[in-house]
Amino acid sequence: MEKTTTQELLAQAEKLCAQRNVRLTPQRLEVLRLMSLQQGAISAYDLLDLLRETEPQAKPPTIYRALDFLLEQGFVHKVESTNSYVVCHLFDQPTHSSAMFICDRCGVVKEGVRRRRGRHHAYAGG
User: Where does Zn(2+) bind (predicted)?
Assistant: First the structure.
């Protein structure tokens, strides 16, 4: 599901939640939508500021509950080193391995995916 549009990403999330019999509330969907519009990772409080543009009553627990759900479903990743969150564009592949690449200059976070090709080799330096 690489390079998906926001609409495609949200539709896929809705489909997976229906299959899993879990509730993707309008608020959770809006948080995922807001995250999908970001170039990279976003902090919970920056996300809260964005959510308050449409839901002025939103409080920190609102965001953290939505993020917990999205993390649990594999729709987002937490970037521990920056205490931020980023959309997973491969959540239809629940067993994928990935690494987060963080730009030292601008802080943009990109998800790198390990692609399996043939056998794995380990080389010792020497």
Answer: 103, 106
Q: Which residues of the chain have pLDDT under 50?
A: 1-2, 117-126
Tell whether residue 17 is among the known ligand binding residues. no
Report whether 40 contacts 86 (CB < 8 A). yes
CATH topology assigned to domain 6-113? Arc Repressor Mutant, subunit A (1.10.10)
Contacts of 59 (CB under 8 A, 6+ apart): 48
Query: What predicted TM-score, i.e. pTM, was given to this entire model?
Result: 0.79
Q: Which sign does the torsion angle of CA 26, 84, 91, 109 carry?
A: positive
Task: Determine whether the annotation assigns residue 106 to a binding site.
Answer: yes
